[in-house]
Each structure stands twice: as structure tokens, then as C-alpha cells.
Amino acid sequence: MAPAQRTDVERSLGRRMRGAAGLAALAGLAWVARDVPAALGGRLTGARAERAARSPQFRDGTFHNPGGTRTMVADPGRNLLRELIFGKQKRRPSTAVPLLRTTGEPATTDTDRELGVVWYGHASALVEIEGYRVLIDPVWSERCSPSALVGPRRLHEPPVRLDELPKIDAILISHDHYDHLDMTTVRELVARQSAPFLVPLGVGAHLDHWGVPADRIIELDWSESHRIGGLAVTATPAQHFSGRGLRRDGTLWSSWVISGAHRKVFYTGDSGYFDGYAAIGEQHGPFDVTLMQIGAYDRAWPTIHMFPEEAVTAHLDLRGGLLIPVHWGTFNLALHDWSEPVNRLWAEAKARDVRLAVPRPGERVVVDDPPAVDGWWQAIA
Fold first, then answer.
1. C-alpha atoms less than 13 angstroms from C-alpha of 235 in its C-beta half-sphere
2. Residues sharing a CB contact under 8 Å with residue 342, sequence separation 6 or more, in sequence order
3. Deepest in the core among 30, 271, 341, 375, taking most CB within 10 A?
């Protein structure tokens, strides 16, 4: 073959290879993104939309907080993107987060008085109360995102696999943000468990879209309750927002009260500090334990996530006994140091004489006999 002919063949082969590589890359992106449309969830239609429209929290086509809130506020002279990329905050632990593998035995042998909490990381937790098990905001995926390729990635593995969870009696979802409602986790729980999903108004549209049977979806407005055997589970107010795509506030957000015959638990969901905590404490408290959101705060969004000191104030408003912090340590969702939320919380709890337990991911806390706070996170910060 002449040199010129050989060059033409090589060029043609190169073009074909580049084309094939481009098609392969597109196919790869398509494969990675194949679940994104489904992960965005469903839309409110029919009877579900009609019910949402009757809610006191719903007007002008969306849900609202009782007081005015903004998801972002002006912060003159500050560039959040630059701070995100070039900021000096230490937003990851230096070494591996210690994990504990809790088995399925009860927290105590007295099921009438049993009360234990297993924190799995971020907002995911298991409440063991009077012989029942309630799973809260379960997220087991690698990323809290609609995509497996991009989005905040875990800083530690889940302490146990979903197939290692004990039999669950109820699954609570606080709102539809990706770090609280995960499609893959929901689908696996549908296959492995028989428990109903208790969710705020509208969130059932996502579950329905993902194949959750209708008889396992229970949607509640604020102040509405549902009984699970001897438990009463009540949706209570929170100050936050919702949305999985471009549309905001098409579903409701809530905190939760779990009440047995003898024990009571409160979970904040995501919320800014507001006077609703005192009202919840007056109506439903006192609580044996509160699970309080403490992480992912910033002065740019002060009304939708609590600062650690506000979490202590809210705990006192709620008439709480033991405080267990959640919503920290697992995903990078703000600009503060990784360990800052729990350091600030510990200092404030000591200053205000609040009982505190800070478990490692996977560690069971027996509420009547909690472990002493030992600062385990400081050794890896």
C-alpha cells in the first residue's frame, strides 16, 4: 500500500474509532443517567392533588410555612461558589468514620418500656419503642442525588445493609429532598419489608411513581395521626421546603411525634428554629428523646436549617429528655467544618445542662442508660 493510501486509511480508522468512543461515552452517560427521570418522582394529580389543596398549609399551588421563609438570603460580599471551591473549611474527616454493626435484638428485655435509637448516619435512624421498630428517613445510596454519577457522596458506608435490618413496623419520611427520600432505598425496602410508609401530604406521589403499593402509603397533614398497633404517629409542623426537580414546595414537609403507651419520641426532620417547637412540646410533650437536626446550616439559609445552639433551644422548647443529634457527619451539604456541628452542640448542651448522646453510626443508644459523650469524632476531625 502506498504511503498516501496508508495515511487515508489511518485517518478513516481514527475517525471511526473516535466516533465509536463518542458513542460509547454517550451510551455510558445514558446508562448512568437512566434512573434520573424516575428518581425525580411523581406529580400530584387527581384525588391526591385535591386533598393537598384542602390543606391549611396549601395556597396558590404550593405548600407554605406559617411564617415567611427564604431558602437563600442575601449575604453581601460573599461568593458561595468560590467559598465552596476554595474555602478553608475542613469539610471531611481525616480518617475513616468508626462504624458499629448493631444486631436486631431489642434495646431492653422490657418491651413495655423499651426505648432505643440506632443512628445509621445523616438523618437515618431506627427507633425501638415498646416492642415496635420505626425507621426514619432511610437513605442507603452512595449519593444523595437523582444521579449515581454526581451529587454529594457518602463520607462513610452504611453501618449495616438493608437486608440486615430487623422487621420494621413503620417507615417515616420527613420530606422529599434527596438526603431524606431515596428511590433506590425505598424500592429495596418495598421488596424486603412489609411496613407502611408514613409521609407528609403529596410525598405519596413519589412513592406511587416508584411502585410502592397504595395500601402501604399513608399521607398525613400536620396534626394528623395514624396508629401502628400500640403506637400513634403524628405529623407535626416543621419550617422547611421541598422539591426534587425545578418545582419547589409541591409536597409538604413535617416533623414527627412517635407515641407509645409510656414513651414518646420527637424527630425534627429538616427545619429552621421557630415557635412551633414550643407549641409541639405543649401539645405532645414531654419527650423521652428528641432526634434533632444540627448540620448543614449556614447564615445564607438561617430559617430552614437550625444552628446547633438553636437545636438545644428547640429541644428545651419541646420538653425533651435526651437529645440525639442527626443530620451531620455523612454528607457534605454546607460549608462548615465536618466536626463543627457536634462540637458546638456539645458545648451548648453542657452550658444549658441538657442530656446528650452522640452515637457513632450504627451504635444503639438505650435512652434510659445512654453512653457518656466521649468526643469520638474529635480524634478523626
1. 23
2. 294, 308, 325, 328, 329, 358, 377
3. 271
* Over residues 331-349, mean pLDDT: 97
Q: Mean of the pLDDT values across residues 219-223?
A: 98
d(CA 64, CA 36): 27
- 25 pLDDT band, cuts 50/70/90, is very low
**Amino acid letter for position 280:** I
253-268 tens-digit pLDDT: 999 999 999 999 999 9
Strands 264-267 and 255-259, sheet pairing: antiparallel
**Strands laid side by side in the 124-129 sheet:** 217-220, 197-200, 170-172, 132-136, 124-129, 115-121, 364-366
Pairing of strands 287-293, 320-326: parallel
pLDDT for the residue numbered 31: 44
Q: What is the pLDDT of residues 276-328, one digit of tens each?
A: 999 999 999 999 999 999 999 999 999 999 999 999 999 999 999 999 999 99
Predicted confidence (pLDDT) at residue 50 exceeds the cutoff of 50:
yes
Radius of gyration of the chain measured on its C-alpha atoms = 23
As given in the structure block, the three cell numbers for residue 275 are 415557635
What is the separation, in whole angstroms, between the first and last Cα of the chain?
A: 65
In sequence order, what E strands does the chain have? 58-59, 62-63, 115-121, 124-129, 132-136, 170-172, 197-200, 217-220, 225-228, 231-236, 255-259, 264-267, 287-293, 320-326, 355-356, 364-366
pTM of the model: 0.90
**Which amino acid type is present at position 262?**
H
Query: Is 114 exposed, middle or buried, given 0-12, 13-18 or 19+ CB atoms closer than 10 A?
Result: buried
Strand partners, 29: none
Angle made by CA atoms 345, 334, 141, in degrees to the nearest 5: 100
Identify any residues that bridge with 368 across adjacent strands, giving them in sequence order.
Answer: none
For residue 20, name the pLDDT band (cuts at 50, 70, 90).
very low
Whole-number percent of the chain with pLDDT over 70 = 89
3-state secondary structure of 70: coil
> Distance (Å, rounded) from C-alpha 64 to C-alpha 49?
15
Q: What string of DSSP letters covers 269-292?
A: -S----THHHHHHHHH--EEEEEE
